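Quick one, tokens below. Sequence please?
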């Protein structure tokens, strides 16, 4: 017997849940299929456990208490999006292996399913770089790091991106000796150089060893269960060095979960890295198949996946002229180190090619930062010219970076400005409560009109 549905959602993470709920709101019959518990990587292995661990470590909890807190929070949040919840909302949920057999049929947990439209939202997983010996030492990834039951004496992290920096700081606060091995010349390579430099300084002051420009030649089992890492730094002494660590964590990128369930067999195109190719409307080359979230490789963020899921569900049941585009232009992101790093829109280097202007305000110029003593950080706002009007009204807000204790909360005012193509002058006209850190946004924007905080705006530069 074949199960009939209008909308098949493959994958139960942020994108899949959002797509399911969006289609249900349109009155569609939805079948959500997943080979793993609903909630996805964010709930079980990403945002929820990592931010809980960061919070627990800052509260002075022990390692054991912190990991217990992580597990409680994962269980709590997972219970709000499990199969019973989705079924109560009207979806059919099937847990088990999925095999796509055509552009309108699939086999799920041994059952035949026919669908009108489908969205692939299977997410991503940790990518292991091709380092000799890596598989032999069974490195930790974000999928296993939170299973630890006792604090390691030392932890070496391959990768200085957001996850690497966040977990480095959390484990350091929990008394673990932490080393970061980063292959490029700075941490947080997608962020503004000033942000990278500041986070590097703070992590170093907290006792974390940071080795940049590191090439890892080999890893191998060491004594007493430790891991030995042979690496060199191409900007300093190129002779290989040896490092011994209790545990090794790989935080060096992601790979798509796009193989093993028949996508290529039904003609869905993947790129050279395995991500599902879509157009701006999130449709694949097969008209009945859409894709959303990490598996597209477009923007590997939970909230971006949520937005993609909504758009994919809308487009799946709309006429072409009603299609919505997915654009990352105004989607913010944040790294939850202390201080946090948040960004939206263009960087200064990207804006330099468009005649951008930059306002920069150090946190130490803001009274709230002085009051709390948290003066490490800055607000950078970037505007661009508006056609023949050029910089009338300060120009249009096209990007921003904030490094501050609550930058992840503060960035949304600027995300709204980017989304609505706001004149900078609108922010300057908006009264902000005193004393807050957010009042610094108004002070920074004022630089587009006159000297504020001892500075005026300047032309954007290629600062990479």
């Amino acid at each position: 017997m074949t199960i009939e549905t209008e909308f098949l959602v493959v994958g139960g993470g942020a994108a899949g849940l959002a797509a399911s709920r969006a289609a249900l709101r349109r009155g569609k019959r939805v079948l959500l299929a997943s080979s793993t518990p609903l909630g996805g990587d964010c709930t079980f292995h990403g945002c929820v456990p990592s931010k809980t661990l960061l919070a627990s470590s800052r509260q002075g909890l022990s390692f054991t208490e912190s990991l217990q807190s992580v597990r409680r929070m994962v269980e709590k949040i997972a219970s709000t999006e499990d199969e019973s919840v989705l079924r109560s909302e009207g979806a059919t949920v099937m847990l088990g292996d999925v095999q796509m057999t055509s552009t309108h049929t699939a086999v799920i947990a041994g059952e035949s399913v026919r669908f009108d439209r489908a969205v692939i939202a299977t997410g991503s997983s940790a990518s292991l770089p091709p380092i000799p010996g890596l598989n032999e030492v069974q490195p930790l990834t974000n999928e296993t790091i939170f299973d630890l039951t006792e604090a390691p004496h030392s932890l070496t992290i391959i990768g200085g991106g957001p996850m690497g920096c966040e977990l480095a700081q959390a484990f350091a606060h929990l008394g673990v000796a932490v080393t970061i091995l980063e292959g490029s010349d700075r941490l947080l390579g997608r962020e503004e150089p000033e942000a990278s430099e500041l986070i590097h300084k703070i992590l170093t002051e907290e006792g974390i060893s940071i080795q940049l420009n590191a090439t890892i030649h080999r890893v191998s089992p060491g004594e007493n269960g430790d891991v030995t890492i042979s690496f060199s730094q191409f900007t300093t002494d190129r002779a290989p060095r040896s490092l011994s660590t209790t545990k090794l964590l790989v935080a060096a990128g992601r790979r798509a979960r796009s193989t093993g369930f028949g996508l290529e067999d039904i003609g869905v195109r993947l790129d050279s890295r395995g991500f599902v190719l879509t157009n701006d409307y999130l449709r694949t080359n097969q008209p009945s198949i859409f894709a959303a979230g990490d598996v597209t490789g477009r923007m590997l963020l939970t909230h971006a996946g949520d937005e993609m899921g909504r758009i994919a569900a809308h487009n799946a049941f709309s006429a072409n002229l009603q299609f919505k585009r997915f654009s990352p232009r105004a989607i913010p992101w944040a790294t939850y180190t202390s201080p946090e790093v948040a960004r939206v829109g263009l960087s200064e280097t990207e804006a330099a090619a468009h005649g951008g202007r930059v306002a920069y305000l150090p946190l130490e110029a803001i009274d709230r930062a002085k009051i709390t003593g948290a003066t490490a950080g800055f607000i950078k706002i970037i505007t661009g010219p508006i056609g023949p009007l050029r910089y009338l009204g300060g120009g249009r807000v096209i990007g921003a970076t904030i490094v501050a204790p609550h930058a992840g909360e503060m960035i949304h005012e600027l995300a709204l400005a980017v989304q609505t193509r706001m004149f900078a002058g609108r922010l300057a006209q908006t009264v902000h409560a005193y004393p807050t850190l957010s009042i610094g946004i108004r002070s920074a924007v004022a630089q587009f009109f006159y000297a504020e905080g001892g500075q005026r705006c300047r032309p954007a530069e290629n600062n990479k």
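The longest strand covers residues 111-120. The CA atoms of residues 19 and 183 lie 37 Å apart.
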